[in-house]
Write a structure and sequence with these properties.
This protein is an alpha+beta fold and 362 residues long. It has 2 domains: 3-112, Phosphorylase Kinase, domain 1 (2-Layer Sandwich), CATH 3.30.200; 129-359, Aminoglycoside phosphotransferase (APH), C-terminal lobe (Aminoglycoside 3'-phosphotransferase, Chain: A, domain 2, Alpha-Beta Complex), CATH 3.90.1200.10. 45% of the residues lie in helices and 15% in strands. It has helices at residues 3-13, 60-76, 129-145, 160-173, 182-188, 191-204, 248-260, 273-287, 298-325, 330-347, 350-359, and strands at residues 20-27, 34-42, 45-53, 94-96, 106-112, 215-218, 227-230, 233-237, 244-247. The strands form 3 sheets. It has a 5-stranded antiparallel beta sheet, with helices on one face. A two-stranded antiparallel ribbon has the order 6-9. Strands 7-8 form a two-stranded antiparallel sheet. α3 (129-145) packs across α8, α5 runs parallel beside α10 (330-347) and α7 (248-260) packs across α9 (298-325).
Length: 362
């Protein structure tokens, strides 16, 4: 670990009453923020925490939204999430300014280190039947707990219905940003497929019946890599920095894409329909007969295939932004792109949509 990183974290810890730094380990799983597992010593006791350095460009209001959401869930009692530790000044995050003309600085926060195993990432997860059902229940607990949440701050990312035109515009601009790799060649060879998926999704979500879809707090990145497991139980849910107010069924559609889409050839992009059905059965079962949010309505269930397609497009947008705005491994991102394209191709086949709709008839 570079000595300047250690010194940086030691400086951060001076703003907390959590003890002195003993050890740290960078979390290599993240794509957005920079995070560390840190050990501290206080009164002879070693404790472990999770320290996050937020991505550059994040707005303070977004951190306020995230941290007020975590506080709300903790007060509700479930699902299991990590508390945020206050600074000596009583704030849930720290802003640190830098010298040498850097006016932006960075934001930091320290969380509980959740128990359990980091068993999966978002790439090619394949949960057991029990893990899948338990994951669906935790998402239902999250939606149930956050109904009526009054946030501090605001997530600046638009809602999915507002994002689709922006994604369409980004796709149209990509030929002018050509990096001349296999990623670009593959994307440009399939622009019609992506544009067709965007058009079909936008058309479906402009129908009058969409006015009946429920808005709620959504996690917006609910996949097995953002869960911790003890056995087949879920011991922790984390990464709320993409959370916002949006359509509840979009969050479920995105989750279904993450949990049930196959990555392995020759079935890349195919949804494992038995898992789609099992996820929805568990989600609906938890919310049945509970006051408040309630299970998915018939209208929400009808639009889930479109929301799965919207979820694929949403993550494709992240893939494109990362690829064209950062220095990344083109081969790694080509794998992501190929998965997005395979998903779009599978969803474009009418017989597959019909089988998907049948799987959702709970």
């Amino acid at each position: 670990m570079a000595i300047d990183v250690r010194l940086e974290i030691e400086e951060i810890l001076k703003n907390y009453d959590l003890g002195e730094l003993v050890d740290l380990e960078k979390n290599e799983r993240g794509y957005i923020n920079t995070s560390f597992a840190v050990q501290t010593l206080k009164n002879g006791q070693v404790s472990r925490y999770f320290l996050r350095k937020y991505k550059r460009g994040i707005q303070e209001a977004e951190i306020q939204f995230e941290h007020s959401l975590i506080g709300h869930i903790l007060a509700a009692g479930s699902p299991p999430v990590a508390q945020v530790y206050p600074t000596r000044q009583g704030e849930t995050y720290l802003r640190r300014s830098f010298e040498q003309g850097d006016s932006e600085g960075a934001y930091y926060a320290i969380f509980d280190f959740l128990p359990g195993e980091d068993r999966y990432t978002w790439v090619a997860p394949h949960c057991s039947a029990a893990e899948l059902s338990n994951s669906a229940v935790v998402l239902a607990q999250f939606h149930h707990a956050t109904r009526g949440f009054k946030p501090a701050g605001k997530r600046v990312e638009p809602k999915i219905l507002e994002m689709l035109p922006a994604i369409t515009n980004r796709i149209a601009q990509t030929p002018r940003m050509d990096k001349r790799t296999a990623f670009d060649k593959t994307l440009f060879g399939h622009l019609d497929l992506v544009q067709g998926s965007l058009e079909a999704t936008s058309t479906a979500l402009s129908e009058p019946a969409c006015q009946e879809l429920i808005e709620n707090v959504v996690h917006c990145d609910y996949h097995p890599g953002n869960l911790k497991f003890e056995g087949e139980a879920i011991s922790g849910l984390f990464d709320f920095d993409w959370s916002k107010i949006d359509l509840r069924c979009f969050d479920i559609g995105l989750a279904l894409w993450y949990f049930s889409a196959t990555w392995e050839a020759p079935r890349d992009g195919e949804l494992r329909l038995e898992e789609v059905r099992a996820f929805i059965e568990a989600y609906q079962g938890f919310l049945k007969d509970r006051p408040g949010l309630g299970p998915l309505s018939p209208v929400e269930l009808r639009y889930l295939p479109t929301m799965i397609e919207a979820g694929n497009l949403y993550v494709l947008n992240w893939t494109l932004v990362d690829y064209y705005q950062k220095k990344v491994d083109p081969q790694e991102y080509l794998m992501y792109l190929q998965h997005h394209l395979a998903s779009a191709a599978w969803l474009s086949i009418q017989s597959n949509r019909e089988r998907l709709a049948a799987a959702l008839e709970i």
